[in-house]
Known about the structure:
Layout: H1 11-18, E1 22-26, H2 35-40, E2 46-50, H3 76-79, H4 88-91
Amino acid sequence: xxxxxxxxxxxxxxxxxxxxxxxxxxxxxxxxxxxxxxxxxxxxxxxxxxxxxxxxxxxxxxxxxxxxxxxxxxxxxxxxxxxxxxxxxxxxxxxxxxxx
Length: 100
């Protein structure tokens, strides 16, 4: 048996069941947006998104990015009272399946 057993859950189910203070979301599938359940949870105080916004989640609702829009207004995480911090030093060294 594994020393640390893995429990398979959908992201929103895991947040409800385990009530984490911090969520590490790695390479969220393109077209999914798990951040809504992170922000709705009373236990979550911070979440970290790992991945390339062009191929992970939803560009606007997950990442707050709207290329080509002059002034799209506040993105969903801002409307919910959250703010984003880009971790540039970490972003430069992450590796993904689409890297060459």
